[in-house]
Amino acid sequence: MRICIATVLPLLGLVCASAQAEIITDSYGWEDGFGTICGFYGNLGLAENVGAPDPVHSGDRSLHLVEEPIEGTPQAYLAFITGLQDGDIIDASFWRFDDSPGASPSVRIWAHYATSDDINSYMGSAGGNDDYGPGEGWDQTGWQWVFDSDAGARDALVIECRLYSPSEGPGDLFWVDDLFVQVEGDDLSGVRIYNPGNIPAPGAVVLLALAGLMGRRTRRR
After folding, report:
1. Does residue 23 surpass a pLDDT of 90?
2. Which domain holds residue 210?
3. Rounded to two decimals, what is the model's pTM?
4. Residue 6 maps to a domain
5. Core-most of 63, 112, 192, 210, by most CB within 10 Å?
């Protein structure tokens, strides 16, 4: 049993509180040769698991994404984190290939809130980064979110890869690799992290079909 005497030793109390936090992590690099994405929104024309001669950051495989047609802001769902509670801290990152310095085509890491029973249940934007990257090949982009359940209305977070193409194209110059997710909180017993390789089948197929059939093409913020 750990006792923190915060009233006598405030610093010790902070150390003890921090030590009680739980951390779980998950990573995915498309090395299984078949995983692609967990779902999508908008005009995503293709998501494929590729190897050389396509760009690969580490290992032998990466994710290739295509925007088709060129309009709006398509979003590929890379991770689905369920069972979250207020105050849980989510860190996520992935590597992106980009040879256009500070401009499109490029991708950004973003997220939106959802419910644990449906990756397509959009419950508000959680925000993300706003840069296009250095455009010198592979670079790592990441973000941190502090979970807000909106008074219990939502309990999941979807990590997105948002595609940005020039207005005249091309829309096929997007590659992603080495996804990493970490969740920190006081009680993570109900938290699950799903990636394209472990999302329950046939759930992934169903989710993709539903997203495609809905045909939503407008930009969502």
Report:
1. yes
2. 24-214
3. 0.83
4. no
5. 63
